[in-house]
Amino acid sequence: MRIGILGLGRIGAFHTATLAGLDAVESLVVTDPVAAAADAAVERFGATAVDSPEAVLAAGVDGIVVAAATDAHPALILAAVEAGIPVFCEKPVARTVEESVAVLRAVQDSGVEVHIGYNRRFDAGCMAARKAVVSGELGKLHTVRSTTLDPAPPPAAYVAVSGGIFRDCAVHDFDIVRWVTGREVTEVYAAGGNRGAEYIAEAGDVDTASAILTLDDGTLALVSNSRHNARGYDVRLELHGMRDSIAVGLEDKLPLRSVEPGATFPAGTPHDFFMDRFAPAYRAELTAFTEVVAGRATSPCTVADAIEASWIAEACALSLAERRVVRVEEVRRG
């Protein structure tokens, strides 16, 4: 199949390399405002470079990957859908949840598949955890813990437009909690603080945050996030049930240091970047998208799925601002 790629920044270039290595992908058509980025894709992967998203859509592609700036996501998704081309778009769907709802309304009856990029759904550990929940081997869940700790904060320019730690970072935790448990979040209580980079506080955001989520069956989910984790990139998920408890991310590259006498675990070099931690998941995610393009599968993460995680983020942002419990229905609009 022939895949078009819109945007060749850090994640777009990474996706281009991944797609070039998939057996199902025969050729790539790419575009980026920076000519050097497109030229690099031509040189490394034999891609065809064109000068606009419109030219990619007109190049006979079977599927589209949107890795452009967030502001461009809605228009690019809608253009692909209007052309009848299945589209994969990195999260978020749009800068605001209201814009995302507008995209959902525009595409939900189109018959064209839209796959939003929440890569943890394709992580082997997270998939095993979901299987354990579905099979019932854990028994009734009572506690879930989801953690995302970045080794260093993003640049000030990114923080200023990110929407805050709940909307751009914790949203991955919110999505994976929903997906693994199969439950919905009904209410949240969030707290946060600033322990590092001053520009994060100046942007009205926090650099460290926690949220308690109450799921619709009474299970409690505890989400922890920080922009400062000097030891590395730490993503973990724990599920505690009445019969058993399991963990995702408990392996030798876990960025924690044990101070127990004689302990040698973890012994590996810590993960230091999300592309390192989730490289296999990204490959599995784009492989799944090729199945969607081929018509053998439906979207494994729809626009509606992405919006549900965004509502939780909105509730957490309000809870943090007003220091109170917020029901998700309180922020849900549209």
Explain what this protein looks like in three dimensions.
The protein has 334 residues and is α/β, with parallel strands linked by helices. The protein folds into two domains: 111 residues, NAD(P)-binding Rossmann-like Domain (Rossmann fold, 3-Layer(aba) Sandwich); 177 residues, Dihydrodipicolinate Reductase, domain 2 (2-Layer Sandwich), CATH 3.30.360. Helix content is 39%, strand content 21%. The chain has 13 helices and 13 strands. Strands 12-11-7-10-9-8-13 form a seven-stranded mixed β-sheet. A six-stranded parallel β-sheet has the order 3-2-1-4-5-6, sandwiched between helices. Helix 4 runs parallel beside helix 5, helix 5 runs antiparallel to helix 12 and helix 8 crosses helix 12. The protein starts with a strand and ends with a helix. The mean pLDDT is 96. This is Dehydrogenase.
The total tally of domains equals 2
Provide the structure class. Answer: alpha/beta
The profile of the biggest β sheet is:
7 strands, mixed
Global outline: globular
Gyration radius, rounded: 20 Å
From the N-terminal CA to the C-terminal CA, the straight-line distance is: 37 Å
What portion of the residues fall into strands of 2 or more residues?
15-25%
Overall average pLDDT: 96
